[in-house]
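#struct-help
A.M.: can someone run this one for me? Single chain, 213 residues.
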Amino acid sequence: MENVKNGPFGRFCNYCFYWVEGKDGEGKRKLKKVRAVSQEFAIMEAEAAGLFGPFDVRCEALEPPTDRQLALAEKINLKVPEGCTKDDLGTMLSRCMDFDGDREPDPGLLHYAQDCGVCFSSFTGEKGLLQSMIAQLCARDRAVLFAYAVHISRAGGCFKDPRKDPEASVFRRFADMVEADPALWKSLEGRDLNDYQSPNTRSKAYKAVMSCF
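D.P.: on it. Structure tokens below:
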């Protein structure tokens, strides 16, 4: 994950906060704070929230760890790297306490998440990254990830870059179905991390994926 640590923000997170100023539907200037991996994604977030260009964009540094975080890290003997931010340490603490034993994500999964604009710290594990992806991905990209998860549950293997899988066309076909069927998206929207690691074979979303193979 060195490519993330040495990224444009010079920290362990692949993102920062942006202040995006644009116009609302009535033409009034509005300012919105968004978290994004680049200025391009920050503008997309602002547009999704109802703002229109032209935009003025500035970035804001991430906050340092809180005293409470540092005290908890010391209590559990967690070493805090130099330059670690509040978000980085939050990821590290979650990995230790919520996802104990979480393995490193495959580089392919990291690249896919990055290309999709998912915000994460390079200290995240596979489960933590998947959870961030489920929470942040747009409907189509989440559909691709879920179809990929179903495929992995049947064929074996770990999460990598679904775009490079031989069954990538199947994942895209399922994504087309999700975009065309609100009921199917509702079923997919209700799937949590556990259902990506071990898909519920009785769900509408699972059955739809299977129909694509």
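A.M.: thanks! The chain has a mean pLDDT of 92.
D.P.: also worth noting: DSSP finds eleven helices and three strands in the chain.
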